[in-house]
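Appendix B: complex inputs.
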Amino acid sequence: MAAPLVLVVLAAVTVRAALYRSSLAAFIAERVEVASPLNAWKRVVEGLALLDLGVSPYSGAVFHETPLIIYLFHFLIEYAELVFMITDVLTAVALYLAIQDFNKVVFKKQKLLIELDKYAPDVAELIQTPMEMHYIPLKVALFYLLNPYTVMSCVAKSTCAINNSVIAFFILATIKGSAFLSAVFLALATYQSLYPLTLFAPALLYLLQRQFIPIKLKSKSFWLYTMQYASLYLCSLVVIICLSFFLLNSWDFIPSVYGFILSVPDLTPNIGLFWYFFAEMFEHFSLFFVCVFQINVFFYTIPLAIKLKEHPVFFLFVQLAIISIFKSYPTVGDVALYMALLPVWSHLYRFLRNIFILSCVLIFCSFLFPVLWHLWIYAGSANSNFYYAITLTFNIGQILLVSDYFYAFLRREYYLTHGLHLTRQDGTEAMLVLK
Amino acid sequence: DQAEQFLRSGHTNNWAVLVCTSRFWFNYRHVANTLSVYRSVKRLGIPDSHIVLMLADDMACNPRNPKPATVFSHKNMELNVYGDDVEVDYRSYEVTVENFLRVLTGRIPPSTPRSKRLLSDDRSNILIYMTGHGGNGFLKFQDSEEITNVELADAFEQMWQKRRYNELLFIIDTCQGASMYERFYSPNIMALASSQVGEDSLSHQPDLGIGVHLMDRYTFYVLEFLEEIHPASQTNMNDLFQVCPKSLCVSTPGHRTDLFERDPQSVLITDFFGSVRKVEITAGALPLQRRAPAPESRFPEEELATEPLKYAEQLPVAQIIHQKPKQKDWHPPGGFILGLWALIIMVFFKTYGIKHMKHVF
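Resulting structure:
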C-alpha cells in the first residue's frame, strides 16, 4: 500500500506548492474561517518579531501560541511552507498507519465475536470483510490530504496543522497500544490547545480494552491502570509546561494561551458559536456564559464514555468532532481532522439517514461563508446576523452529521446482536428508533 | 442723542440660530414656530448666510401633509411660512445635541460647509430660538436625546470665552421653558421663555383641514408682534416681554435680564431680530498711509561655514543599501534546548528500548 500513499502524498504536495505560488495564498491567509486569533500565521511572525526586538511576545494580546511553537519556528521560519507541508504529510501518514492497525484490531474482534456466536444469524451482510477494509487507510490519508479545508489551512500556514499532527500522532500511539507515548502526545496536544483533554477518556478506554482489563468501577486493575495512565499524562504535561517556563523565564504564556482559550476575549468572527453571543452580551453575564459554553465542550465526555465504552475509537471520533464544533476558536482545519476519519465508518452508509442533506448543507455553507463575509464587511448590505446564520447552519450541519453517524453506529450494533429483521412481539416488522 | 443712538449697541453683525428639535407629523407646530421666526428674521434683514436653521423633520414634504410644500402658521391657511426661499442648514437627523453644541461653540470639523457654521465674532448679536418638547432642565432632541440647561449654559460660556458673541438673546418655547435659562452665567445674555417651571406651554389652534395644531401660543403671539416690526422701528425689549400675557397664553412667559449689561428699555428688537447696519457718512477724505518699511531683524544670524547640501545627498544611500540584515538577537536559552532534547531522547528510548543505545554510541 505504500505506492498509492506516496502518489497521494505527491499529489497533495503539488497542490499545496501550486497554491503557495499563486496569488490565492494571500487571500486565503486572511480569511477568518481559516485563521483564528489562536493559530494565525501573521501572529506567529508578529510574536517572533517582537522577540527579536527584545519584548516578550505575550505582552499585548497578539500572540497566543505556546513556547514550543516559538522554539520550533525560531529556527524554521524561513522554511515555513515546507514545515507545514511536511506536517500535513506526517499527519496523513500517522492517520494511515493508525487506521491500518485499527482495522486489524476490528477484524480480530469481529472474528472473536463470530466464533463466540455473539452475532445474530442473519447479519452476514453487515460484517466487515478485509476486502472492503483494505482501502480504508488510503482513503483516510486521501480525505485528509486532499480535503479543501486542509489545503486552505496549509496554504494559510495556520498552526492548526501542527495541532492536528500532534493529535494524529496521539491517535497512532494509542492504537498501537503504547500508553507512554500516548500519554506524552496527549499532553502535547493538551498543551497546544486545551481541548484534547477530553480525549483522555477514549484513549484510556481503548488501552484498557487492549490490555483486556474489564471496565468495572470496582475492579482494582481498572483503577490501577487508570492511575498509571493519568499520572503519566499529568507528569508529562507538568514537565512540558515547566520546560516552557525556561524558554522565556516567565509564566506569561499561561494567561496568554490558556486564559485566552478559556475566557474568549477576542470576538473576531469565526466559524464557531462564541463570537456572536459574547459580542452582544452584557458584561454582567459574560462570565456565566463563558463557563456555560466551555462546559459544553467537556460535558459530553462522560455520557458518551458510558454509552460507547465498548467502542473507544468511535468515541474518539465523536469527541474530536465535538471539540471542533464547540471549541472557542474553531477553524476549518479542526473540521478537516475528524472528517478525515469518516471513511473508517463507511460501512455505516446504509444506516445514515440524512447524509445527502447534511453534505449539501456543509458544502453550501462553506461556499456561503466568503459570500456573506463580503456582503457584511465590504458591501455593507448585510450584517453580522447573516454571517452568524451561516455559522449556525454549518455547526448544526456538523452536529447532525455526528449524531447521524452515532445513530447509524448504534443501530448497526443493535442489528448485529439482534438480527436484521426485527420483529415486535406479535410478529410484525419493527423499526429502530434512537430515543 | 444721535451719538447715543449710534453707540447704543456695540454689534456690527447679526446671527440667528433657529432650532426645532421635534420630529413626527404631530409636532408640525414646532416646525411652524421655527419657520415663523425664520421668516421674521429674514424679513427684517438677516441674510440666509447668517442664519443657521435646524429643522428636525420635514413637514412641507411630509406624506401626511394635505397641502404639500407649505407650512401654515395661521388657521384657515392664511400665512404660509415655508415659501420658495427657505434654506434649511441642518435637516432631519442632523439636528442632534452634538451638532447644535458644535455650531454654538464653533468646534466643527474642517469639512463642514459655511452654511452650517456660526461664524460669529465678538461684535455679533446672536438670536437663539429653540422649540420642541422640554421639561424641567432639559430639552428633548429628536425623541432620542436631551440637552440640559447646564450644557447650554456651558456652551454659552464657551462662546463668551471665545468671544463669539457681543450680546445673545435666547428664546425658548417649550414646556417649563424657564428652567432652560436658569443656569446661564455668562454676561450679555437675555433670555425669554414661554412658560415657567411646572407649567406647560400650550398650542394655539388646530386646523381641521391639516389635522394638527399649527402653532404654539407663545410663538403665535410673538409672530403677531414681530409682523408689526420693520427695520426702522424703535420698539424695545420691554414690549417683547409683554407679549402673550397669561390671559392669552395660559402659561406665564418668563424672562431673564440680570446678565445683560444694558437696560432692556434701550435694547431694540431689531438689535436681535434684524440686521440693521450702522452707516456713518463722512464728508471729508481719509488719507491712506504708505506701507511701513520692513522691521530690522532683531537677532543677527551667525554665518556657519557649512557646505550647501545637495538634494541627492540627504540620505546616506550607500550605507543603507549595503546594510546586512540584522542578526537575530534572541536565542532560546541553552537550558531549554538541553532539557527539550533530553526529554525527546528519553521518550524515544523508552518506546523503542534501551538496546538501540548501543547503536548510537
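Chain A has one domain: 1-105+133-345.
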